[in-house]
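Shipment paperwork, digital attachment
Item: protein structure file
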Amino acid sequence: MKRIVLWMLVGCLTAAVYASEQIPAGHDLSVDQIVEKNADARGGLDAWRKIETMVWVGHVDSANAPEQELPFVLALKRPNKTRFEITVLNRRAVRVFDGKQGWKVSPSVMGSGEVRAYTPDELKSAHDEQVIDGLLIDHQAKGVDVALDGIEKVDGHDAYRLGVKLPSGVIRHVWVDAQSFLDVKVDRQARGPHGPVTVEVTYGDYRSVNGLQIPFAIESGAAASGKHDKLTLDKVTLNPPLDDMMFTRPPSQGHRNSASVNAEVSPPALPAMNRPSP
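Attachment content:
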């Protein structure tokens, strides 16, 4: 009996030591406090609630691309509409999601490619995205549950690791820097050629855009791979007027969409503009 009690005591001490490693002294905030501080650090709940549309203009560097610094334009509109255009070898690739359905066009050597519907996995992922403000802002209103898993090092700094459960049941994780309280990393599951893989996305080079903190450097790639795609923002525009037509099914066989982005941006070789995914 004494031996059983001794092993129970050892187990409790081990758990206590492990917990102290996961949540160091001075980082004893509740999950609600972390989420609140994150919102404040990013510019405040009220400011984010006023953002209905957003446009990113920048370029992507990828080890899998035929050339470097591929120009892109990303348009976002609440509640969950996205349009992503990227120029590759002077041809446009387009991905559009209207909140319910998604389509994509990959240019061919002969010109514009065929319009294809999103795959079931792509459609599920698009439905899970929280465009404009991410997973933590107003998470309760979005039906997103957040729990504190502990603290881990990200690039040498302590970061709160939050477990995030989406309305679809999908589990993701968000790392919030323990000092700045800005998002520094998120992960998600994706289907790879040999089965499910964990994709990690890291955020850096935060800059103020009309009082909101926006990451101008974003890297993404499979956690087990050393190859990451780097997305660099050149300009961010808040609340530009975006016609719903630009989020509809793209035209096929070379016909151009008449919708345009009436914003103070200079899209690269395109009149208009799904968050890029690895």
